[in-house]
């Protein structure tokens, strides 16, 4: 109850700040406004349309819902020009009146030239689309943004028949997927640092289950230390942040239902239904839901999950909009054994047990997550927008499991059984303001915000040794009765944690010229954590209770060599991680507790971005250098103690390319080369674990756009990851692997049929932490659209 009151107090505090700021910033404007919606001739929303007011400085592109808006326009008569590849460029005279809003509804007509070849739909169907409001937390085009990011959008997800979050991440350049199993939260490596996909629509929510794909619109892999805008959140996000954006309601009835079935008894049903709830579209609603059941490719294993995500948009007025969303995910099944091995130098030596789970279907797990969020977006005036957000997530993680150690030398297998129970709550409250104004002749796009993140966790568990048998024998069957009997002999463990983070931050993009953009950003985060004592009631354990603060900078410079087509950029960014305390040698051989300084990461990066030939060629190439200081390492003079002078350096090159050279052909290519090493300590010179030196992803698809076979398409691609290591001592190698995938699809306005094959060559390979990866699978999908 006290925790609940504490959170409510924070929320009321934020609301008060919002109301006070609204009053202070509200100001009347004498300029006018122009807004509108653009559709194509076939009724589709036209996304990514170029819109300019001729003979003026004003220009923009249409949003995901086909809308556009110009604010603070001087009263005058303008010529509005609208253009999109495949459609006729149209012009219309518009009158902007003082203190009034001019509204337009425009429809694009297919050009005669394109009509002979293809019916072009909206940019929403382009795999290269990567505009985002969350990467910079402000409307900022990719070519204006000094930070590198990849976007896996709905078109990529659709073409590749992706149903697993970690599989989707394989389409982002340089991102190494951890290869998770059903029910397990996503984890991946960006630029050599681990990252868990805890961000949803820019909010840190920390759900401990998998992210169901049913309501995901895009996945954003935001590269480099991102602490300035996203905070430290207790984990080392030095390589980047993975943010998922969700599907939002729109202003007309529509949706789809889909069934996917395939290898390993895989069955998945999804539904996406959208409808206005009022005639004037003041209240919009959308619900996405999914049911999935599957078996494992291993001897034992199963999973069954249910997901539902309702969302609402309430347009309270022309200025105020509320977005209300919720997610509920539940899964039960059987978890693969936690696997470790002795006596091996390469994980391929375990290929003989690739299909062995070392558990049985009698040993279940249960997991669930719940998310609720509310965003209030208020347009204060034509220069300022306020966003007030409240979000809450709850995760239950309760697996029964086996822990298996393989000893190749002695030809033995040791198993233990265990249970765990984790309850985690996250509360995120944000208040930020976006401004777009001029100081003199300099345009400023300013972000100012406050952020609160609260984390509450309870955990308990236990384990006990179960059996030992010969490596060459079939694993003895585990019954639930025997599992419980052995587990009753274990020594239980338990604990909890409480932490709070308070942050204030700003980011400003200054346009010195229409082509030269400078970003200046800074964040201060105050971290406070406490952990109750295991021996004294109502007392905190001093070793794990502490307060700490840290500053995080971000600077970037962009020069558009060819406006809206080619830019050069550079950035310097930071990130931090709170470390608590460590045991240090006092100089006489005795250990003393020392309060640790925060870990600190800095990155500098140089690169190029382009969108050429009417967006037919989109390219990003960059070189980055990340250095992490204040890492804890083992004291070489006494293995029981630590030193806080460890340094890690990750540097590399990334390339991302999208091309549409001819109508119907899409090409996607991502490549990364990484040198990630420890600079001192016992692992000095060694490559960081789980981080391959080179990765490659590619996808090509071709869709027929005319004739009797219009809508028929073929896709082909692959993923390559080079050798990596199982630990920082570099003694065990995870071999390189190259997997191939293909899809065949046929799409019409009312339905879509697709067949997808993954791992065509049936590679046997292993992910991080000795996770056996899935052999060849085939899935078929049928989608009805309405």
Radius of gyration, CA atoms, in whole angstroms: 27 Å
Average of the residue pLDDT scores: 88
Shape, per Cα inertia axes: globular
Reading off the top of the CATH hierarchy, the class of the largest domain is best stated as: Mainly Beta
Beta strand %: over 45%
Gap from first CA to last CA: 46 Å
Q: What are the main properties of this structure?
A:
single chain; 786 residues; mainly beta; Immunoglobulin-like; Maltoporin, Chain A; 2 domains; 22-stranded antiparallel barrel; 6 helices; 6% helix; globular; disordered N terminus
In short:
This protein has 786 residues and is mainly β. The model is unreliable at 1-8, 14-29 and 112-124 (pLDDT under 50).
Please describe what this structure looks like:
The protein is mainly beta. It has two domains: 31-125, Carboxypeptidase-like, regulatory domain (Immunoglobulin-like), CATH 2.60.40.1120; 246-785, Beta Barrel (Maltoporin, Chain A), CATH 2.40.170. It is 6% helix and 55% strand. It has a 22-stranded antiparallel β-barrel. A hairpin with a 7-residue loop joins strand 33 and strand 34 (642-659). It is globular. The protein starts with a helix and ends with a strand. Mean pLDDT is 88; it is low at 1-8, 14-29 and 112-124.
Detail the topology: elements first, then pairings.
Layout: H1 2-25, E1 32-39, E2 50-53, E3 59-61, E4 67-73, E5 76-83, E6 90-96, E7 101-107, H2 112-115, E8 149-152, H3 154-159, H4 165-169, E9 175-177, E10 187-190, E11 193-196, E12 199-200, E13 203-204, E14 216-223, H5 227-230, E15 240-246, E16 254-262, E17 266-276, E18 283-295, E19 302-315, E20 320-333, E21 338-342, E22 365-379, E23 384-407, E24 412-439, E25 442-470, H6 480-487, E26 493-513, E27 516-530, E28 546-562, E29 566-577, E30 581-585, E31 591-595, E32 599-612, E33 617-634, E34 642-659, E35 665-678, E36 694-703, E37 712-721, E38 724-725, E39 733-734, E40 737-747, E41 751-758, E42 777-785
């Amino acid at each position: 109850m006290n925790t609940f009151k504490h959170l409510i107090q924070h929320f009321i505090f934020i609301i008060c700040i919002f109301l006070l700021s609204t009053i202070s910033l509200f100001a009347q404007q004498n300029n006018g406004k122009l807004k509108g919606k653009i559709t194509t001739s076939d009724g589709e929303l036209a996304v990514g349309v170029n819109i300019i007011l001729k003979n003026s400085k004003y220009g923009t592109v249409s949003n995901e819902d086909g809308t556009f808006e110009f604010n603070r326009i001087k009263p005058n008569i303008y010529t509005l020009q609208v253009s999109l590849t495949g459609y006729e460029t149209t012009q219309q005279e518009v009158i902007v009146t003082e203190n009034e809003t001019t509204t337009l509804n425009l429809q694009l007509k297919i050009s005669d030239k394109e009509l002979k070849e293809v019916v072009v739909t909206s940019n929403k169907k382009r795999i290269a689309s990567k505009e985002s409001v969350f990467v910079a937390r402000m409307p900022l085009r990719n070519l204006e943004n000094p930070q590198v990011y990849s976007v896996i959008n709905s078109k990529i997800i659709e073409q590749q028949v992706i149903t697993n979050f970690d599989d989707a991440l394989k389409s982002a350049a340089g991102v190494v997927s951890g290869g998770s199993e059903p029910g397990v939260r996503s984890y991946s490596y960006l630029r050599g640092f681990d990252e868990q996909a805890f961000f949803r629509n820019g909010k840190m929510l920390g759900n401990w289950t998998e992210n169901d794909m049913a309501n995901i619109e895009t996945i954003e892999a935001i590269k480099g230390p991102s602490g300035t805008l996203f905070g430290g959140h207790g984990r080392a996000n030095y390589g980047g942040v993975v943010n998922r954006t969700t599907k939002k309601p729109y202003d007309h009835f529509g949706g789809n239902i889909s069934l996917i079935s395939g290898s390993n008894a895989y069955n998945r049903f999804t539904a996406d239904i959208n409808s206005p709830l009022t005639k004037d579209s003041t209240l919009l609603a959308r619900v996405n839901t999914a049911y999935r059941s599957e078996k494992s490719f291993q001897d034992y294993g199963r999973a069954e999950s249910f997901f539902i995500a309702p969302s609402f948009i309430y347009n309270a007025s022309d200025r105020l909009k509320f977005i209300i969303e919720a997610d509920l995910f539940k899964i039960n099944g059987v978890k693969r054994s936690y696997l470790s091995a002795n006596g091996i130098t390469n994980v391929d030596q375990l290929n003989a047990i690739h299909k062995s789970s070392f558990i049985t279907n009698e040993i279940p797990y249960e997991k669930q997550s719940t998310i609720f969020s509310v965003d209030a977006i208020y347009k204060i005036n034509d220069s300022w927008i306020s966003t007030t957000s409240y979000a809450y997530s709850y995760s239950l993680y309760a697996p029964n499991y086996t822990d298996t150690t393989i000893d190749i030398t002695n030809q033995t297998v040791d198993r233990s059984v265990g249970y765990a129970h984790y309850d985690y709550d996250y509360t995120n409250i944000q208040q930020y303001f976006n401004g777009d104004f001029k100081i003199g002749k300099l345009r400023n796009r300013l972000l100012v915000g406050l952020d609160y993140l609260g984390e509450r966790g309870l955990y308990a568990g236990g384990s006990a040794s179960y059996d030992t048998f010969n490596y060459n024998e079939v694993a003895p069957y585990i019954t639930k009765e025997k599992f419980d009997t052995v587990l009753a002999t274990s020594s239980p463990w338990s604990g909890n944690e409480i932490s709070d983070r308070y942050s204030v931050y700003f980011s400003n993009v200054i346009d010195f010229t229409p082509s030269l953009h400078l970003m200046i950003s800074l964040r201060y985060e105050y971290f406070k954590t406490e952990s109750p004592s295991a021996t004294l009631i109502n007392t905190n354990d001093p070793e794990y209770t502490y307060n700490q603060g840290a500053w995080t900078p971000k600077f970037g410079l962009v020069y558009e060599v060819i406006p809206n087509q080619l830019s050069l950029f550079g950035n310097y960014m930071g990130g931090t991680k709170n470390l608590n305390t460590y045991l240090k040698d006092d100089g006489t051989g005795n250990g003393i507790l020392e309060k640790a300084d925060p870990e600190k990461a800095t990155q500098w990066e140089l690169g190029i971005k382009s969108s050429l030939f009417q967006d037919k060629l989109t390219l990003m190439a960059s070189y980055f250098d990340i250095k992490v200081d204040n890492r804890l390492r083992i004291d070489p003079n006494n293995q029981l103690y630590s030193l806080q002078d460890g340094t890690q350096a990750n540097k590399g090159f990334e390339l991302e390319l999208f091309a549409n050279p001819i109508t119907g052909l899409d090409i996607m290519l991502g490549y990364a080369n990484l040198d990630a090493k420890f600079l001192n300590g016992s692992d000095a010179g060694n490559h960081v674990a789980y981080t391959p030196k080179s990765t490659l992803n590619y996808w090509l698809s071709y869709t027929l756009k005319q004739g009797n076979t219009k809508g028929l398409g073929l896709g082909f691609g692959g993923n390559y990851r080079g050798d990596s290591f199982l630990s920082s001592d570099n003694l065990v190698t995870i071999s390189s692997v190259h997997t191939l995938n293909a899809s065949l699809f046929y799409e019409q306005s009312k339905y879509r049929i697709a067949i997808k094959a993954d791992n065509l060559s049936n590679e046997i390979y292993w992910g991080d932490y000795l996770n056996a990866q899935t052999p060849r699978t085939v899935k078929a999908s049928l989608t009805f659209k309405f």
